[in-house]
Amino acid sequence: MTQKFLLIGLFFGGVLLFWLLNQRKGGKYDLRTRFDRHIPFVKSFVLAYLGLFPFIAFAGFILFNTSIALEYFTSMAFAMYSAALIWKLFPAKMYRPPVQRKGVLERLVYEVYRDDPHANAFPSSHVFTSFLTAHYLAVVYPLHAWLAWSIGIAIAFSTVLIKQHHAVDILGGTVWAVLAVAVAKALLYL
Q1: Are 126 and 165 in contact (CB under 8 A)?
Q2: Which of 78, 76, 30 is nearest to 57 (CA)?
Q3: At what angle do helices 52-63 and 69-89 cross, to 10 degrees?
Q4: Fewer CB atoms inside 10 Å of the end CB: C or N, the chain?
Q5: Residue 106 sits in which domain range?
Q6: pLDDT in tens, the chain (190 residues)
């Protein structure tokens, strides 16, 4: 029980570290590809983007007393701290469209942009945390794996559809999730 709370605390420490690193203005490295220019801006996906937070809270609550809770929390903490190293050393920048703040969805997008400066784009923490969460929910509840993965994938795609990330950031977040699972297993079971 104490280990779980420690790991949850470590994860939130990583979130705080992300926030502190993200206070700098702009990133240095441009990871845009030609493919990114063809991805439309779809403001309604801000709901999926913001859905990450209740998704993680819900998963943390229902996974807390399962046999894989330590692995889940270890993978989340490892992913946040290892990504923070990349964010510090190689801050990637984002190019976002202007938003008019007409309607609720555009105002939400504006708030996301305002609260999240143009740095720390690679790897996407939205992608790796949503994929880690989907993975562990699917392990514990295989009959509902389709739902967990649908939510995780919607969150991941939302990052490029609201222009919070580039396509390579999704790839990086996916690789980070796979590595975090492998590291958590190695740390806990070797």
Answers
A1: yes
A2: 76
A3: 140
A4: C
A5: 2-189
A6: 677 677 677 777 777 777 676 666 667 888 888 999 999 999 999 999 999 999 999 999 999 899 999 999 999 999 998 998 888 888 888 888 888 888 999 999 998 888 776 666 789 999 999 999 999 999 999 999 999 999 999 999 999 999 999 999 999 999 999 999 999 999 988 7
Q: Which residue has the tokens 């920048």?
A: 93
Cβ-contact 92, 83 below 8 angstroms: no
Residue type (1 letter), 156: A
Hey, which residues does 30 pair with through a beta bridge? 93
Beta bridge partners of 98: none
Euclidean distance between the first and the last CA atom of the chain, given in angstroms as a whole number: 20
Tokens read off for 12: 């939130």
Alpha-carbon Rg for the chain in angstroms: 16
pTM exceeding 0.70? yes
Q: How many CB atoms lie within 10 A of CB 175?
A: 13
The secondary structure of the chain in percent helix, strand, coil, rounded to multiples of 5, reads 70, 0, 25
Q: Are 89 and 27 in contact (CB under 8 A)?
A: no
Q: Which two tokens stand for residue 9?
A: 């605390």
Integer Cα distance of 56 and 69 in angstroms: 13
How many structural domains comprise the chain?
1
Cross-strand bridge partners of residue 190:
none
